[in-house]
């Protein structure tokens, strides 16, 4: 496992904070050796050259490695870590899924990128639309790999904004800067208003951003078709499901009419 064990009292605290404030930072959750491994992998991949088509001007100064699932199995291991599952399954699993037992995840990975801040990133939400209520269709999990502060592009959030049922107010003064250290993990309700400060240094501030969706939401990229065979053959059925293999639309009605499937489609 890449992450340290999360016990029941901490699980309860995380869920309570997500409900009340829309976020929580868990300190020192990534095992130290994996912090270094993940950071080295990101830097090596970025140095070797990456293609990031369609980035808006606001992201022009970012350092980015998109679609981490296709880069190395360690990234797939990260988002399928059992400790993440403890947090996300009670929130995102569809209890009426039927095609998989309730003991395994049926949520999917929506987006998965490495990012080091450049320009300021304005407040936004990642839930696609704001809404009221206790139901969550999406969650963000941010894995901090380098020290994060207000001068190098820290994550900013507006506590309790997930309860507003509105899009962001970018003039709000209720912003909280998240200072964090390598190994910390930030959990956010995707309705929570968040962004980053400007990176005013000449140093990187790498973190891994992962978005998890209810199984029926559209993914940022087509993970199933983009993952190379050398990684795919090493993945478990559960990992493939989290990457979206059990919710691929059929080619036609002659194939099947269900979008949600079980592990049988992986054979």
Report on this structure.
The chain has helices spanning 8-20, 32-48, 73-79, 82-92, 223-226, 229-232, 237-242, and strands at residues 23-26, 63-65, 108-116, 121-124, 138-144, 155-157, 176-177, 185-189, 194-196, 206-213. By secondary structure, it is α+β, with helices and mostly antiparallel strands. It has a single domain, classed as q2cbj1_9rhob like domain (Jelly Rolls, Sandwich), CATH 2.60.120.620.
User: pLDDT average, as an integer?
Assistant: 95
Question: Major sheet: order of its strands?
Answer: 1-8-5-10-3-2
Q: In total, how many beta strands?
A: 10
Oligomer: single chain
The CATH fourth-level homologous superfamily: q2cbj1_9rhob like domain
CATH architectural arrangement: Sandwich
Gap from first CA to last CA: 26 Å
Number of helices: 7
Q: How many structural domains? A: 1
Q: What is the CATH C level class, in words?
A: Mainly Beta
Tell me the radius of gyration: 18 Å
Helical proportion?
A: 10-25%
What form results from the Cα inertia axes? globular
Low-confidence stretches: none
The CATH topology assignment is Jelly Rolls
Secondary structure class reads alpha+beta
Key attributes of the depicted protein:
alpha+beta; 6-stranded antiparallel β-sheet; single chain; 267 residues; globular; Jelly Rolls; 4-stranded antiparallel β-sheet
Write the layout of secondary structure elements.
Elements: H1 8-20, E1 23-26, H2 32-48, E2 63-65, H3 73-79, H4 82-92, E3 108-116, E4 121-124, E5 138-144, E6 155-157, E7 176-177, E8 185-189, E9 194-196, E10 206-213, H5 223-226, H6 229-232, H7 237-242
Antiparallel strand pairs: 1-8, 2-3, 3-10, 4-9, 5-8, 5-10, 6-7, 6-9
């Amino acid at each position: 496992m890449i992450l340290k064990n999360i016990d029941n009292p901490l699980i309860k605290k995380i869920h309570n904070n997500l409900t009340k404030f829309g976020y929580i930072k868990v300190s020192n959750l990534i095992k130290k050796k994996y912090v270094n491994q993940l950071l080295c992998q990101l830097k090596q991949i970025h140095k070797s050259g990456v293609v990031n088509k369609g980035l808006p001007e606001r992201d022009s100064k970012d350092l980015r490695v998109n679609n981490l699932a296709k880069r190395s199995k360690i990234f797939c291991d990260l988002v399928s870590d059992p400790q993440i599952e403890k947090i996300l399954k009670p929130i995102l699993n569809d209890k009426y899924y039927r095609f998989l037992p309730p003991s395994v995840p049926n949520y999917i990975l929506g987006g998965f990128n490495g990012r080091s801040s450049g320009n300021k990133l304005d407040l936004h939400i990642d839930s696609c639309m704001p809404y009221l209520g206790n139901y969550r269709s999406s969650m963000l999990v941010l894995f901090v790999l380098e020290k994060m502060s207000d001068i190098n592009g820290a994550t900013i959030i507006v506590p309790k904004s997930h309860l507003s049922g509105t899009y962001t107010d970018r003039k709000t003064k209720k912003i909280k800067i998240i200072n964090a250290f390598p190994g910390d993990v930030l959990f956010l309700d995707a309705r929570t208003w968040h962004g980053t400060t400007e990176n005013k240094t000449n140093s990187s501030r790498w973190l891994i951003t992962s978005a998890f969706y209810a199984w029926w939401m559209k993914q940022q990229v087509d993970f199933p078709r983009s993952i190379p065979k050398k990684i795919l053959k090493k993945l478990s059925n559960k990992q493939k499901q989290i990457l979206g293999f059990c919710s691929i639309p059929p080619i036609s009605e002659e194939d099947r009419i269900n979008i949600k499937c079980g592990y049988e489609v992986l054979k």
